[in-house]
Design goal:
Structural class: alpha+beta
Distance between the termini: 30 Å
Largest sheet: 6 strands, antiparallel
Order of helices and strands: EEEEEEHEEHEE
Low-confidence stretches: 1-15
Strand content: 35-45%
Number of domains: 1
Strand order of the largest sheet: 1-7-8-4-9-10
CATH architecture: 2-Layer Sandwich
Length: 136
């Protein structure tokens, strides 16, 4: 199930640093964070996932004007714990070139925080179809 919660075009409003629609701008980049559903590799963590998903959606919405979530099942081959299958939530936003350059480090740092908090070996960040495994 996909939940669409963002507009397709944005500009920044100075008074609240939020994004609002601008019909002239194209958003031709995509940034996505994969939120795990396990704690410490293989322990179910539904509440933690829900909280991390909400925080990710809030951050991406602040940076890019909105976010979309979708569910997926991912597999990770852990050297310590073997093959791990887990339900993930993908939180992503569309953005322009300048916002991509401006906020990529912030998104990566957020992924590092999720990685530490959920005791993951890595959290995936996808930028324009290229995956990065972000370690804490």
């Amino acid at each position: 199930m996909e939940i669409w919660i963002f507009c397709r075009t944005f500009v920044t409003e100075k008074e609240n640093n939020r994004k609002t629609p601008n019909k002239m701008e194209q958003l031709n980049h995509r940034i996505c964070i994969y939120i795990p559903s396990t704690f410490d590799g293989n322990k179910p963590a539904k509440r933690m996932q829900k909280k991390a998903t909400r925080k990710a959606a809030q951050r991406l919405s602040t940076y890019f004007g909105g976010a979309t979530t979708t569910q997926a099942v991912g597999y990770w081959n852990s050297p310590e714990k073997g093959l791990i299958a887990e339900k993930q939530i993908l939180v992503y936003s569309a953005c322009n070139e300048s916002d991509k350059a401006k906020y990529t480090d912030a998104v990566t740092n957020f992924a590092k925080a999720v990685c530490r908090w959920m005791k993951q070996e890595a959290v995936t960040v996808e930028i324009d179809g290229t995956l990065q495994f972000v370690e804490a």
